[in-house]
Design brief:
Layout: H1 6-10, H2 12-15, H3 19-36, E1 41-45, E2 53-57, E3 68-72, H4 90-93, E4 99-102, H5 112-130, E5 134-139, H6 141-151, E6 164-170, H7 185-188, H8 192-197, E7 209-216, H9 221-234, E8 239-246, H10 264-276
Length: 281
């Protein structure tokens, strides 16, 4: 039996040596987009911790969509910031979506379970503040958090059961135990038990909704497996999902189409939102 090298499979920065230039490009594009949005509302609090805040980029069209979009950044729960991703709102802004970009506390100051709880608090806050259900997308660790929000029992929290019934996890992680023996876990600090507890693939699956698991064709076999596994496990009565393998994309370039209003990825998000709000043009 072949042993999988989990370090090689999950160390994305080692797999994509040019990642510093890609991240620098994100930061430049994000700053330019943020500076140009006069109506943007930045650093709005949703909780007590310093990083419990979000930016809101209003739609650039007069007609507003019925769902509020939420983007959750990646960084293996231990790095990066919403300020590097402001331009990811551009695609959906052009289609009538107000877009919130999330910040959350980082490991090792908190555990992954704490970050899940913060995103649940943010989702609740956004609904209570704006009165709109959510279209959620996120990258890498943000893909994991997207799935966690879809699998949350919102009715148990006194909120609409379908608060998050449309989601697009991009390069997501849904089974976290393979990370425990890798260098990624030095800051994250998961045990096998806490990794399983934080794995949305092991939770009761959502009772309904629509999702698309997106992953780059040039990503590792483990990342491809994780997205396939989510689609195979979650598809069922009331829950419709699909797998979208982006040709030529690696772990970092896979999210770039979110900044393009004409991209197929943005069109797919619009389709998910429409499916989650039938009867709304």
């Amino acid at each position: 039996m072949t042993t999988v090298d989990m370090e090689a499979e999950y160390n994305n920065r080692a797999r994509v040596p040019e990642h510093p230039a890609i991240i620098e490009g994100w930061q430049e594009d994000a700053e330019a987009y943020r500076s140009a949005q006069e109506n943007a509302v930045l650093d709005q609090p949703y909780g007590p911790a310093p990083r419990n805040c979000y930016d809101l980029f209003p739609a650039s069209t007069e007609e507003k969509q019925p769902l509020l979009a939420l983007f959750i950044h990646g960084g293996y729960w231990q790095a990066l910031d919403k300020s590097a991703f402001s331009h990811m709102a551009r695609g959906l802004n052009a289609h009538g979506f107000d877009v919130a970009l999330a910040n959350y506390s980082l490991c090792p100051a908190v555990a992954v379970g704490d970050i899940i709880a913060e995103m649940q608090e943010l989702a609740s806050h956004l609904y209570n503040t704006f009165g709109k259900k959510l279209l959620v997308t996120g990258h890498s660790a943000g893909g994991h958090l997207t799935a966690a929000l879809m699998a949350t029992d919102w009715a148990d929290r006194g909120l609409p059961a379908d608060l998050v019934s449309a989601g697009m996890p991009i390069s997501g992680l849904f089974e976290l135990e393979p990370l425990v023996e890798t260098s990624i876990n030095k800051a994250v600090g998961m045990t096998a038990e806490t990794a399983r507890e934080a794995s949305p693939i092991l939770w009761p699956k959502p009772k309904g909704g629509h999702f698309r698991a997106v992953v780059g064709a040039k990503e590792s076999a483990e990342y491809l497996r994780q997205s396939r596994m989510l689609v195979e496990t979650w598809n069922g009565p009331g829950l419709t999902g699909s797998l979208d393998i982006q040709d030529g994309a690696d772990h970092f370039t896979v999210i770039n189409p979110l900044a393009d209003p004409q991209s197929a990825l943005v069109a797919a998000l619009c389709d998910l939102a429409l499916a989650a709000s039938p009867g709304v043009a």
